[in-house]
């Protein structure tokens, strides 16, 4: 791969936030990562020391911003350590705080706006974000008053759609709640199926817990192998309860495909038993965040790497190509 453009030689800085993915991306790009020393002070605050030369180069920083305080702090320090580069662009496989993009009650902060402001003011020229929780997120970034001039919003979901098309045997698509129906209905167009259902959940008015016995399916899943797509999984409650309702309504198999494995500390204890029991037959995730308790999961948790896709995006940015090539056409 020719790694030169008008911005100079492409050089890659890998943040500690997801070094495994960063190294896989470097391998796909066939370039060695720039030498950095990264660690923490005694109070666990991040510290970085850039050792490699950045003069006249096109610098890409790849950082997965999942542990907000530490990963954001590390990213800002990396940008500040770069002097004399021709251009700096950030590639963020995951940007945390995405669900905190509006106040849900009086007094709530809009934390995603804080995240976007910090990235906007960091000193990078361009950013790439993936599979944000809403399509409005790119507009949180200030491209008018800072060095940042462009934010590309791309979809790693394409990897999962193509995986389902090529490797999964399914009869229909099921949104595991009414909120994800629009996403799954759009995906059905790419997969050329009109069989789309969704779970309608009824909650107990006192406890607000989902009443599985009173919840139902809009559509028909009886004796069908269904697949469901979502942008992220955190607690896994939505997925597990949705699968219970689907199986109660006669679904033969339930397979879930997730972009961001934003698992909490208790997710393993909820999700892994569901995989072991067959309540969820398969779960496919893109490891945009380091997988918690790696090696302990049931084999039906399938982890795919987005490294090749991200490497192609980085090369496209470096060569000033057009992002349209990364979107699936509807024919």
UniProtKB/TrEMBL annotation:
Enzyme class: transferase
Enzyme Commission number, as recorded: 2.7.6.1
An individual GO BP term: purine nucleotide biosynthetic process
Gene3D superfamilies the record matches: 3.40.50.2020
MF terms in GO: ATP binding; kinase activity; magnesium ion binding; ribose phosphate diphosphokinase activity
Cited Pfam families: Pribosyl_synth, Pribosyltran_N
A GO CC term attached to the entry: ribose phosphate diphosphokinase complex
Keywords for the protein's UniProt record, in alphabetical order: ATP-binding, Kinase, Nucleotide biosynthesis, Nucleotide-binding, Transferase
Ranges of residues in domain Ribose-phosphate pyrophosphokinase N-terminal: 10-123
InterPro entries for the chain: Pribosyltran_N, PRTase-like, PRTase_dom, Rib-P_diPkinase
Catalytic activity: D-ribose 5-phosphate + ATP = 5-phospho-alpha-D-ribose 1-diphosphate + AMP + H(+)
Keyword DNA-binding: no
PANTHER family: RIBOSE-PHOSPHATE DIPHOSPHOKINASE FAMILY MEMBER, RIBOSE-PHOSPHATE PYROPHOSPHOKINASE 2
Protein name: ribose-phosphate diphosphokinase
Organism: Candidatus Kuenenbacteria bacterium CG10_big_fil_rev_8_21_14_0_10_36_11
Lineage: Bacteria, Candidatus Kueneniibacteriota
